[in-house]
Amino acid sequence: MTNKIEIKNLTVNYVERGVNNTALDGVSLTVKEGQFISIVGSSGCGKSTLLSVLEGLLPPSEGEALIDGVPITGPGPERGVVFQQYSLFPWMTARANVLFGIRQAKRGISHKDARLLADEYLGKVGLLDAAGRYPSRLSGGMQQRVAIARALAMDSDILLMDEPFGAVDAKNRTILQELLLELWQNEAERKTVVFITHDLDEAIFLSDRIILLTDSPGRVYRDIKVDFPRPRYRDELMGSLIYDDFRRELFADFFGDKNRAAENDGVII
Length: 269
Ligand SMILES: Nc1ncnc2c1ncn2[C@@H]1O[C@H](COP(=O)(O)OP(=O)(O)O)[C@@H](O)[C@H]1O
Ligand SMILES: [Mg+2]
Hints:
Blueprint: E1 3-16, E2 19-32, E3 36-40, H1 47-55, E4 62-67, E5 70-71, E6 79-82, H2 94-105, H3 111-124, H4 140-153, E7 158-162, H5 170-186, E8 192-197, H6 200-206, E9 209-213, E10 220-225, H7 234-238, H8 241-256, E11 263-264, E12 267-268
Parallel strand pairs: 3-8, 3-9, 6-7, 7-8
Antiparallel strand pairs: 1-2, 1-4, 4-5, 9-10, 11-12
Helix pairs in contact: 2-3, 2-4, 3-4, 4-5
């Protein structure tokens, strides 16, 4: 498989009122086409900063970030983005939000085709009935479904997701994880996904690889392969001994050696 994303020795410094704050320090990372990777680390370790660089909103202070071998210079429709919240335009209905993404990504698409595509993806996330509603009339989980529908309907090669289920309650988070996995697994052309989370169980369930970052400034601490076969089914996976072992090791790695913040039900705070 070819390298879709290459991050080489990436350092990002924020300078505020003359004070330098290094958010990322020499991060190197390669993501193969079609791979699903999670980036995990404590709050403030530079995860969102890394995503902003991949999105093209923030230039590296040192090093480089490439997509298909080409340095990133700005945002582009080949990268769909889903944030923790506020991903949707509040003045547009769910359908209009998805349509907006489609028109960005597929210039010249006819109105009819765009609408069919929008409704196809709203259907996939179970929200066709809510297509005419504005975000303020959708729950947080529903809003994130729309955001996922938009990102997938754009048919971007790459999905960048920054704690997309972080603000969703536990039950809906589980449902959304399964939905994302199912959609990702069934896409004809499998997307390359960079998924940011501070939830280790979420990372294990979804990913091919987990990148653990150190506390601030973020550096790659571990690059761990997640070999569980796909398709994955939560009950099957999480009930298995091999999962328990993997999880225990990952937690030990994360909390043990590095004297990290306390564990709280799988969530790092
Ligand atoms: N726009 C900014 N200006 C200055 N400092 C920032 C900015 N964004 C983030 N930071 C700082 O960079 C570090 C990493 O932040 P961030 O990437 O948001 O971490 P995470 O997403 O892992 O919580 C933090 O110390 C944060 O305060
Ligand atoms: Mg963040």
